[in-house]
């Protein structure tokens, strides 16, 4: 599970430093050996600015020699630049000396005029609110810092990677790469064998070309991703527990298969994936590379439809469904509601985001919709609104659609194409305004004359997470 940084420092990181896993001395030695990094200077500017502080000085803050660390802090203050604020925040979780910790906060308060004390989250929010440039070697700073937690982390930030998101918003989630292990071609069992599932257990239902499967939330909360072959296609289900989203992606594009895993990092409280071939980071919500060599190459995973529903409702619709087995090959307590119990029980966030919107509670569930042919438009529909409006019509760009919500609260989205539907029995029969009956299947609506309206991709999410990614989203509530 991800660790909770709270308003203080990262105790797990400090503990690793004390046991020797985190070697500031090693970082400093490596950086000193690199004249490109250790001797970087600012380009001449019209208004003179202090010379850039070498990265080695920042890592001296986290060394065991407190005197040397305080001297490094003074140098940073004497040569202050605004871009140092994010670096001080990032390394603050690794400082063994309380005097240095206090000194970092005092320096931040002096140079910024803010008074957030030790509330690291508020400092981050303030930094994120500013349009400031990053230290030219910030990517190397992150690479050198985090490779001491997992050497593979360096691969994300090496060689000043291309990025379309701010590097200072990429935060460590508290685990190593794939420390939350994906399930790979997991064992599936018949519905009748899943006696441990209660009627009201939440499952993520997939039905593609007759291959019907259920992935219980209580298992996925421990793994957050499955790589499976469904109906002969290699697909990835990605569940971000922190932002409440479960998305199913086709991970083959133009014949290229992308093997994805859990990077160990977050962006705006949403997990970042990585691909095994290039170690580029990918956004869970958009299915696109956001850091690394694949950025800017027009790559976007195709989202497929998936439904969040109850075991009772899914089993009723699909009695022959397969279901993910408890025999995952990992030792976890898969009891109902065990994983992230405390997180789901409150409206508090584990990792903060730049801005919240109070029109809904942070973790209020919404149905999230976006279509690739209308990239400027996003839509969030409150789940409570849909439960009260079982047949709801809307549009994004030229895409007209209808949302059908059954008694379990599960939402399915279909093309409407100017057809207006009036009522639904909650199962298989849908009536249009002209009185014609349509058949409801997982993948389509079928009209009285054989017309087919396809199922469209959509997924549930926590409001705060969707809004953090798409602050311009339209909200229906």
In summary, what is this structure?
The protein is an alpha+beta fold.
Q: Would you spell out the secondary-structure blueprint of this structure?
A:
Layout: H1 11-18, H2 24-32, H3 35-38, H4 55-60, H5 66-78, H6 84-91, H7 98-112, H8 120-128, H9 138-146, H10 154-157, E1 170-172, E2 183-184, E3 188-190, E4 202-208, E5 211-216, H11 217-223, E6 225-230, E7 233-240, E8 245-250, E9 252-253, E10 256-257, E11 260-267, E12 270-275, E13 281-283, E14 289-291, E15 302-304, E16 307-310, H12 311-317, E17 322-324, H13 341-345, E18 365-369, E19 379-382, H14 383-388, E20 391-396, E21 399-405, E22 411-415, E23 421-424, E24 429-432, E25 437-440, E26 444-446, E27 452-456, E28 459-462, H15 463-469, E29 474-476
What Rg do the Cα atoms give?
Answer: 25 Å
Question: What is the helix tally?
Answer: 15
Biggest beta-sheet profile: 8 strands, antiparallel
Distance linking N and C termini:
32 Å
Tell me the strand percentage band: 25-35%
Uncertain spans, ≥5 residues at pLDDT below 50?
A: 1-22, 24-42
Tell the overall outline.
elongated
Overall mean pLDDT score?
91
Strand order of the largest sheet: 20-21-22-27-26-25-24-23
Secondary structural class: alpha+beta
Number of strands: 29
Relative helix content: 10-25%
Domain count: 3
Task: Kindly describe this structure.
The protein has 477 residues and is an alpha+beta fold. The chain folds into 3 domains: 11-149, no CATH class; 183-343, no CATH class; 353-476, no CATH class. Helix content is 25%, strand content 27%. The chain is built from 15 helices and 29 strands. The strands form 6 sheets. It has an 8-stranded antiparallel beta sheet. A hairpin with a 5-residue loop joins strand 12 and strand 13 (281-283). Helix 5 packs parallel to helix 7. The protein is elongated and about 80 Å long. The model is unreliable at 1-22 and 24-42 (pLDDT under 50).
